[in-house]
Amino acid sequence: MEKGANNSIQQEKPSHFKVKALQSEDTAKSIERMLATQLEKLVKIERISEGKDFNKSFTAYEAEQLTVKNVNLSSKSEVDKNMSAQIIGFFCMMLLYAAGSLGELLLKEREEGTFYRLMSTPVSSKQYILGTALFSLVTLLAEIVICLLAMRFAFQIDPGTSLVSLFAVLALFAVFAISISLAFSFIFKSRRSLSAVQTTIFTISTLLSGALIPIQIMPNFMQRIAEFMPQFWVMDAVSKLQQETEFFGLSLNVLVLLGYTLFFLSLAAYRYTRNSEIKSFI
């Protein structure tokens, strides 16, 4: 406080106050903001006292200070939205694991010879694979319905959007999960290697996507990486739906998920045509 500081407050133009720090500039800036707030308060008290008795006005101000209470302003709807997002993020990983059993089933029947016995019947390999994939998809859709109904009616958690919209997003992700499982089943030759790779990829991709960990607390470079994960686009779609975005406003999310699905279906088709063990029974 330099000479003239008191007079500057009386004139309602605070000056002659300086803050210096030997090292941390951030500390100095914080103190400057605090000082500016206090000086503004003193100027207002000076203005109220009208140049008469500042100490009397300040004492009256101190005696009538308001009591401050900490109140949690988070509404139940916001809590429900956050909980439903966490549930859906975890459920995405469960859908991947459930769809992964499709690839393991195909490899198991090939290892045990069931597949080759089926190929001696009028059933073609394409019909067998398509039928198994459709059965897995119907199972996943049933799991989605049960999960959404349980979340809404059993646990009384309001997702903040319609269950139909959530079902549509998760159903599209289920189709993607089936496509990646099919691709892996044609790439790998044994169930052990398939199971190990699927578990690793599904877990890491879910963690990186922000489905289990809120993406807002991730570093910027991790948030950029998350955008390459299919689960990220599911969580982003859920967030948009909770913000009352129309389902037609999710065009980018739908296109990205469809792109991933088509890529893995194309990979599965390519590996299918290159698999001599399957082609020999066509």
Automatic annotation (TrEMBL):
> What range does the record give for the signal peptide?
none
Q: Where in the cell is it found?
A: Cell membrane
- Output the Pfam families linked to this UniProt entry: ABC2_membrane_3
Q: What is its main location?
A: membrane
Membrane topology term reads: Multi-pass membrane protein
KW Cell membrane (keyword) present: yes
Q: What is this protein called?
A: ABC transporter permease
Return the similarity comment.
Belongs to the ABC-2 integral membrane protein family.
| Keywords noted in UniProt | Cell membrane, Membrane, Transmembrane, Transmembrane helix, Transport
Any GO MF annotation of the entry: ABC-type transporter activity
Transmembrane residue ranges: 87-107, 128-151, 163-188, 200-219, 247-270
Quick one: a GO cellular component term? plasma membrane
Stored InterPro entries: ABC-2_transporter_component, ABC2_TM, ABC2_TM_bact-type
Domain ABC transmembrane type-2 residues, every copy: 51-275
Q: Is Cell membrane one of the keywords?
A: yes
